[in-house]
Structures are given as C-alpha cells and as structure tokens.
Design brief:
By secondary structure, the protein is mainly alpha-helical. It has a single domain, classed as Growth Hormone, Chain: A, CATH 1.20.1250. Helices cover about 75% and strands about 0% of the residues. It contains 22 helices and no strands. The two termini are about 35 Å apart. The C terminus is likely disordered.
C-alpha cells in the first residue's frame, strides 16, 4: 500500500477539482429553472451566471500568499469548508441577491482550489509520475462537470434547482474528511524551516531514506538561492516563467473552451436541437467525452511530453472551430442536415482540449515557479486564467450579436493559430525533469524553451 500512497494523496486532493468542475458547470442547467422562481432580466441572468467567476477571480487574487503562509494542506481544508458553506447558501437562498452572494462565496473557493490543488499534488508526486498525477486534478474537474450535467438532468424533471446547487455539499464534505488525514507538503515545511517533519512526511511517500535525503538536499539548495521577499516573482530571472504561466492561462480561455462549457445548451439550440431537456441531455455527451479523453491522456503526458500534446491539441481545436464556423449559415442556426455534424465537431474540439490545454496548463503552472514563490506564482497565473475566462464569457453572446456565430468561432480559431506559435517557440518540455532542475535552469538564465533540460551535473552540499 505504501508504494501507492502518493496516488491516494493525489486522488483525495483532486476532489477539489470535482468541486471546481461541479460548481462551474451546474449553473448551465439550473439557470433555466431559477428563472421560474425569480424572474430575471437578461442583465440579471448574466450576473447570476457570472457571479461565480467574480468570486473565483477574488479568491485567486486574495489567497495567493495564503498558500505560502498557511501551507497547502490547511488551505485545502479551508477551501472544503467554503465550498460546503457556499453550496448550502445557494440551496436555501430566499432571494436573488442571496443567491448571487452564495455563488460568489462558491467562486472564492473555486479560485483558491484551481491552483492549490494542483500545487499540492505536484509537490507530493515523484517526478516521473508528476504529469499524470497533477493532471488527475483536471480529470477531476471534468468529472465534476459531467456530474453537474447529470445532476441537472436528474432534477430537471422536478425543476428543483435548489437541489442542483446544493448537491455540491457532498463532495465538499468528502474533501474535508480526506484532507484531515493527509500530510503537509514537505517542500512547504522545508521553506518554513521544519526539516524533521518534512523528512517524516516524505519517507512514506518515497519509500527509502536515500531518496528522501537526496530530495531534501535538492530542495534546500533551491531555498538557499531564493530571497524570502515574494517580489522575486517579478525579478528579471523569474520573469520568463511568469510570462509562460500568464500565456498558458490566457490561451486556455481565449481559444473558446468556456463558451462550449457554459453555453453548450445555447449553442446546441442554435445548431437546431430541440427544447432545453434535449440540449441538456446532449450536453452530457460533451461532459462524457471531456472526462474520457482526459482519462486516456493522463499516462501520455509523461510518456509523450507536454509540448507535443499542446501542439496537437491546438491544431485539432483550431480545425474544429473552423469547421464549426463554416457550418453556421447565420447567427441563428446550422442547416438541419448538418445538426449532428455540428455536435460532432464540438465533441472533437472538446476532445482536443481535454488532452492538451485542459490538463497541461494547470500542470505547468504548478511546475515552473521557484519554490519560495510557487504559491504566489501559481495564483497570479490563475488570476490571469479567471480574468480571461470572465472576458470570454462576458463577450460571447455580444460577439454572436455583432459578428454572428460564424465570425465568433472564426475569432476563436484565430486565437488557436496564434497560440500554436506561442507554444512552439516559447514553452519548455518539462517531462521527466524535477522541480529543482527546472528551478536551477531558470536561475542559470537558460532560454525559455530550455527550462526543462536535464542538468548534466548537480552538486548538493
């Protein structure tokens, strides 16, 4: 059992990803029935849907330094409590104002969980399995999205949106109970000067004292080279990984993923599908494909590498968006003969995202930052991700109105093409490279593309 202890740790921490996915996806179905109890103007509809994004942005901004101050495990316990409290608040909300407040609270938890979960897993995982284990978080996000669609469909027959939103209480409790029994990150403990506890936490994960001592020596070397001031994140040497994190976070959103996830029923209606129930049922297919492809991709991330999967995924996403754009005759629909082809194109797009930008963005922002500022670095990239998410979500329907569906999906296709250049020229391959080696390369001033290069000789004292 000890051999797979790090897998158990990763699985429990990844429950935060289930909550992330569930609470972002559940509103797509619930909003159809909330309107029956609280008549909403189009503007209020947007506020109810978008409030969780505002909360997520606030959580990412305010909680970055808390990750380095309180530790990864303690913050995940706090996140679990916030998820439960927010889900309960939305389920019993007596007014639209309280519903929005509850969604903002849930969003704060999402904003924190979206980086502290992958960060914790990356620091607990052995380097040869780090890609797959950190990407469990993305698999959990897709599982949460699929779960939200299933819950929406189940309760749609009774129009009970309160149970849809309140269902998030259960995975929140599960995360809290699981994290009570997990250890704190050894890397964070060493950064706090607690070497004895770090050694005790590492031993059952790595299995041998030799491996533990070697890893502790590597971490201590990196700690000696880093200033305690968090402003190091903006220094000339660290700036490359700051831009890499921002770039990946930005392109994950501007290539259009959340227009599919948040507005799938709307797009499917535009594509010619029938009523809301049929659209929600078809949306479940999108969630299922996302989950299955992410599951298949987990072992490939460490076998094939980050860059090949990113490039292949972006090419597939761009081609799918181009095909989808061509199918739309106008902003109002796809010819009846192409309705199912339109859905198939969306599924291909989702599949390509699910083995590339979906898991790899979160993985890389958990890998590339120096230990002393890893929490704040990941949180800044997460902020960029949520800002981009909010921008795309807020402008999607307006773009449909201004340039039509064909023009809108063409814009997202162009973003995919530009992103291919960014990945090809600037993103390093970090497969099989330890977090300490990435950091050594960064402080040695190596070019962006070479940050994942293996060190030829490293001495530890």
């Amino acid at each position: 059992m000890r051999k797979y202890y790090y897998v158990l740790i990763s699985l429990i921490a990844a429950i935060s990803g289930i909550l992330f996915g569930f609470d972002t996806g559940v509103m797509s179905g619930a909003i159809l029935f909330i309107e029956q109890d609280f008549p909403l103007t189009p503007g209020m509809n947007g506020i109810v849907v978008g409030s969780v994004l505002l909360g997520a942005l606030a959580g990412a901004i305010c909680s970055g330094r808390a990750t380095d101050y309180f530790g990864r495990r303690k913050l995940l316990l706090i996140v679990a409590f916030i998820f439960v409290f927010g889900a309960l608040g939305t389920a019993i909300a007596p007014s639209i104002l309280m519903l929005v407040v509850g969604r903002i609270i849930v969003g704060i938890a999402i904003g924190v969980a979206s980086y502290v979960g992958p960060l914790y897993i990356s620091e607990m995982a052995p380097k040869k399995h780090r890609g797959a284990l950190v990407s469990l978080n993305q698999l959990a996000i897709t599982a949460g999205i699929l779960l939200s669609y299933i819950v929406d469909y189940y309760f749609s027959f009774t129009s009970n949106w309160r149970w849809m939103l309140g269902f998030g209480i259960f995975p929140g409790i599960l995360l809290y109970l699981g994290m009570l029994y997990l250890p704190e990150s050894p890397r964070w403990l060493l950064s706090q000067g607690d070497e004895e506890q770090a050694r005790n936490n590492l031993l059952p994960i790595r299995g041998s004292e030799e491996s533990v001592e070697r890893e502790i020596a590597e971490i201590k070397v990196t700690l000696k080279k880093e200033a305690a001031d968090w402003k190091i994140i903006f220094s000339k040497l660290v700036r490359p990984v700051l831009w890499i994190g921002f770039g990946l976070a930005f392109i994950q959103q501007v290539t259009g993923i959340n227009t599919i996830l948040y507005y799938a029923p709307t797009i499917l209606k535009m594509a010619g599908f029938g009523n809301a129930s049929v659209s929600i049922l078809a949306t479940m297919g999108i969630g299922a494909v996302m989950f299955l492809v992410t599951l298949i991709a987990l072992p490939l991330i460490d076998r094939w590498g980050r860059r090949p999967l990113l490039l292949a995924g972006l090419v597939g996403m761009g081609l799918s968006l181009g095909a989808l754009a061509l199918m739309f005759e106008s902003s109002t629909g796809i010819p009846p003969s192409l309705e199912w082809l339109g859905l198939s194109t969306m599924l291909i797009y989702i599949a390509c995202f699910s083995f590339s930008l979906g898991p790899i963005m979160w993985l890389m922002i958990a890998e590339i930052y120096p230990l002393q500022v890893r929490g704040i670095g990941a949180s800044l990239a997460t902020c960029a991700n949520w800002c981009s998410n909010l921008l795309v979500t807020a402008t999607f329907l307006k773009m449909i109105e201004w340039v039509g569906a064909r023009g809108t999906f063409s814009v997202y296709m162009a973003c995919c093409l530009l992103s291919i250049g960014f990945v090809y020229f600037l993103i390093p391959e970090t497969k099989g490279t330890s977090l300490e080696e990435i950091e050594e390369n960064l402080f040695a001033g190596k070019p962006w593309r070479q940050l994942g290069s293996k060190l030829t000789k490293v001495k530890f004292k």
